[in-house]
Amino acid sequence: MRKESILTEEEKKARHLLKLAKEQLNMIDPSNNQQSLITLPTVVRKKKRLMIKST
User: Fold this and answer.
1) How far from the centroid of its chain's Cα atoms is residue 31's Cα?
2) Distance between CA atoms of 9 and 11, rounded to whole angstroms?
3) How many Å apart are CA 55 and CA 47, to the nearest integer?
4) Spatial CB neighbours of 47, under 8 Å, sequence gap ≥ 6
5) 50 SS3 class
6) Could you report the per-residue pLDDT of 1-55, keeping only the tens digit for each?
7) Do 55 and 40 form a contact (C-beta atoms < 8 A)?
């Protein structure tokens, strides 16, 4: 039996609203994502020659 079938209608609505709110946050201001990337430190791993630099 799937987990969704056990949920009540109220729980389904609450989860759906949370999902919509999360999607809207991602769509509203993509510049926030870029600002959060700036605060990340530069990571350099010499063995794997992997460099992640903030932009």
Assistant:
1) 14
2) 5
3) 23
4) none
5) strand
6) 555 567 688 888 888 888 888 887 767 655 555 555 555 445 544 444 444 554 4
7) no
pLDDT confidence of residue 29: 58
* pTM as predicted: 0.39
Letter string b/e over residues 13-34, b meaning 16 or more CB atoms within 10 A of that residue's CB: eeeeeeeeeeeeeeeeeeeeee
Q: Supply the DSSP string of 9-48, one letter for each residue.
A: HHHHHHHHHHHHHHHHHHHH-HHHHHHHHHHSPPEEETTT
CA 41, 45, 50, 51 dihedral sign is: positive
